[in-house]
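Reply to dn_fold:

You asked what the input looked like. This is it:
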Amino acid sequence: MGARVALSRGNQTSNSEMLSGDDGQFSFTSVAPGPFQLTITSQAFATQTSTGILHPGEMFIVPAITLAVATEITQVQVVLPRVELAEEEVKEQEKQRVFGVIPNFYISYVPDAVPLTSKQKFGLAWKTTIDPVNFGVVAVIAGVQQAQNNFKEYGPGAQGYAKRYGASYADFVSDTFIGGAILPSLLKQDPRYFYKGTGTTRSRILYALANSVICKGDNGHWQPNYSSIGGSLAAGGISNLYYPASDRGAALVFENTLIGIGENAATNLLQEFVIRKLTPNAPNNQSSPTSQP
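and this is what came back:
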């Protein structure tokens, strides 16, 4: 296909325009004397210009014009698959420890973090429940229960402490897996707390309190936190299988669920205003790097 050739005079473009032949030749007739400019364009080639002065009675032969291939600037973005990106974000979360010791895995400092897959939700729950520090936390809880003689039917001494420890750890595991993995996978909800870190103190307080009963869905929309609340109810129901008969019942389940919601609200407030400052590996509050040039 021929190139498009336009003849212009001064600042005015004339109607003289044509396509060159397959051999690249072209000609204009009845051209008035004076300076002129030719503009040659062709797809995939850089635009070329040629100027000259046509004298009266002269037949002007334009010197050979070679069209150069146009320089094309291509921008390539390398985008990580969402699963791989989520995996990278989870690995960063698993480095988050208060004072460099206490696990702080269920908080994201990336506001637009990629939703977790079911496998990643279960992996995070497993990582949390087998963390050595959490074994120590459960040991402290069991020790406090022993000192206060909670669940009297468990009795005193090492045997009573072992029963309290087993029950407390069972509560922890069931609540973590049901509320942090099973239900979030089924209901497509994100079990993490998303750090706000900006805005007025009042807005951050309201945000933290609201997140005890709402959560972000895998679709990015906020919705009632059925996973956490349902997880507390289910874990409470399961606890009736191993707690002493005198401490069982629906009232205790719902009471513990309400206590759990309150604990979540308190924890969220600490996350929003205190814990980040005490977490050495907490990243800056920034968007997820979905691509790089």
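The helical segments are 82-93, 118-129, 132-147, 157-187, 201-210, 226-239, 250-273.
Hope that clears it up.
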